[in-house]
Amino acid sequence: MFFGRAGKKPDWQMIDIHCHILPGLDDGAQDISETVAMLKIAASEGVSDMVVTPHFRPGRFTASPEKVMETL
Fold first, then answer.
1. Given 3-state DSSP classes, what are the helix, strand and coil percentages for the chain, each rounded to the nearest 5?
2. Three-class SS state of 37
3. Is 27 exposed, middle or buried (0-12, 13-18, 19+ CB in 10 A)?
4. pLDDT tens readout for residues 7-46
5. Does residue 50 sit in helix, strand or coil?
6. Which of 15, 19, 27, 68 has its CB surrounded by the most CB atoms within 10 Å?
7. In degrees rounded to 5, what are phi and psi of residue 20?
8. What is the pLDDT of residue 7?
9. 52, β-bridge pairs
């Protein structure tokens, strides 16, 4: 993301294909308020779409596909 443009909408859009925005699944957003804050920043920077990509690492990050879908 390109920080520092707060309040000014970019003239372009971007798709973020690697983000850890779903709350409580990995080392990204820890709760829904952090997710909302991250979404606002992303939108202000021109992100129009996101591909959620939580980590999966046995013993550390173990969100099942069902848990990911439930969190959406």
1. 30, 20, 55
2. helix
3. exposed
4. 566 677 889 998 889 998 888 899 999 999 999 999 888 8
5. strand
6. 19
7. -115, 65
8. 57
9. 19
